[in-house]
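WARN no homologs supplied; continuing
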Amino acid sequence: MEQLPKIAKLKDGTVVTLRTVTKQDGPALLAFFRSLPKDDRLFLKEDVTQQEVIDRWLKEDESGNAYPIVAEHNSKIVGDATLHLNRHGWQRNMAEIRCVVARELQKKGLGTILMHELVAYAHKEGVNKITAKMMDSQVSAQNAFKKLGFRKEYELKDFVVDISGKPHNLVIMVNDVSALWKTMEDLLVYSDMRTRD
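OK structure emitted
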């Protein structure tokens, strides 16, 4: 796995910089999440427009139990992805993946590129299963993960609520890291990625 930061070119030729999150990214992350349309934020686990949520995330990142990366374009964050690791106990072979991309760069391969970096990190850390959790109404997200080879393992009825307070079923999808790595390598044939000097 090449070290970050690196440059990546999307399907439409847009060039982004991929890098790990730093303590100084609080204002830029907050601006990114506040710029997302409400529909894109409705199903996120927390209200990411709140300063205290971002502050807590940055503090949690220091623990080593999360590997957060961002994509930047024109000095603005346009994508955020995190691998949440279980460092101890009986789920230490598992991790959860989360990814959010700015509306204007969706369907251009950025989500796949960000997840590729997280899968590479998971492989390096000895993780062999990755989960993705979403609400039942997030059909497009489920379809995107299915294209990557994820399968639905569970659907828990009325298990979560969106930020407006409406209950939803929680869908848990799973994939093996080795299978996911192969799928993502195939999907990234078009992409030009190189380490930034």
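The chain has a mean pLDDT of 88.
OK
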